Amino acid sequence: MKKTALFAALLCLAQSSLHAAVPLFLNYQGKVFDSAGLPLGSTGSGATLASSPINRKIIFRIYGATSGGNPVWSEEQTATISLGEFSVVLGNGAIVSGLASGGGTVTLAQEQALRGDLSAVFASGADRFLEITVDDGNATINSSDVPVSPRQQITSTGFAFHAKVADEINTTTNLTVDSTTGIVKAAGEITGASIATTGSGSITGTHVGNGAQLTSLAGANLTTGTVPLSALVAAVQQALCPPGTVVAYMGSAPPAGWLLCNGASVNRTDYASLYAVIGDSCGSENTAKFNLPDLRGRFLRGWDNSIGRDPDRAARIAMATGGFTGDKIGSIQADAFKNHTHPITDTYTNYSQTSANGGTGNTGATGTLEQADTTANSSTGGSETRPINAYVNYIIKF
């Protein structure tokens, strides 16, 4: 059976040393067709062509010339061919067992001795050409199986034998692997001189993650629309309103990033940044939760912090169970009046004394009232002491 082949060889390194001058193995891929022009390992033709893999023996010989001469290396492999395509690693085959070289005078015994280390084949740096012979379906290669012509020159594909930067990277100190994405990251900073783009090239968010390591970015260098408004607002909000900030809010429901100061019990993990600030100052239901401040119907007062403007600071009570007491943020006081008195002046005209009771008349004189005065002041006012006020919601940033 006549066979023709279109193939390409890729020279690749398969040694432990990055500084090796020659390879021990060659990756080789080829495509083989029968005499009718159909790829081996297929059925049908045209639109109905389908894969039907087959195994064929292939002899690989390397020569120092495009034709004639004796091979400098040879081996035999069994390859699986599908739609004409096969892939092998030269250097992993066996000693040629069937057919002596058809391109020279070397005997089978001599050719069998050629199966050896590929590195010796390329050590001299001379040109090398690959010839392949594929069996015609008899599970062996014989004289009727002619080599594919012409021989193909083996040329190296450009790749780095040695990368200078790799000398500075090792898996124990400078490399980390993201457990989610699997991306390998190198430690250290990327300086301004390290990144440059040409043409329409650009550095996107996928290259710098969340951008936490980007510093000294001038506004003039940011193209309008390249920073998402949502990301910018969130960053500015966190900077200007850190967790624990309390503000008056006229809405009935809190905006994004805020919670109502209604004393609710929330999870410490869900609101870790807020808990790091206020802790259990406003109470805690258990070790997994903490209370938000309950500012409903309450006025705010600056923390005395031992300055002495709150004489009752030591007697302050907890806002809720587990909350802080005394001179600490989060403690509360009930309403009260400061201790005081109201003086009363009682002026009167003394009674007249007559002969009927054994005295002499004495009218118009004043004297001291010697009986208790039990008259009470009239009650006035509302149900509490308060200034003019308006309802708002207090909200806290988390």
Can you describe what's shown?
- This protein has a four-stranded antiparallel beta sheet with strand order 6-5-8-9, with no helix packed on it. It has a three-stranded antiparallel beta sheet with strand order 1-2-7, with no helix packed on it.
- It has five helices and 16 strands.
- Among the domains are: 4-153; 228-337 and 390-398, no CATH class.
- Mean pLDDT is 79; it is low at 4-20.
- With 398 residues, the chain is mainly β.
- The chain is rod-shaped, with a radius of gyration of 48 Å.
Comma- or semicolon-separated keywords:
three-stranded antiparallel beta sheet, 16 strands, four-stranded antiparallel beta sheet, 398 residues, mainly beta, 5 helices
- Indicate the overall shape: rod-shaped
Rounded average pLDDT: 79
Q: How many helix segments?
A: 5
Please give the number of β-strands.
Answer: 16
Intertermini distance: 79 Å
From the alpha carbons, calculate the radius of gyration and give it in angstroms. Answer: 48 Å
Strand order of the largest sheet: 6-5-8-9
Uncertain segments: 4-20
The largest sheet, given as strand count, sense and whether it forms a barrel, is:
4 strands, antiparallel
Structural class comes to mainly beta
* Secondary-structure element order, N to C: EEEEEEEHHEEEEHHEEEHEE
Q: How large is the share of residues in beta strands?
A: 15-25%
Helix content: under 10%
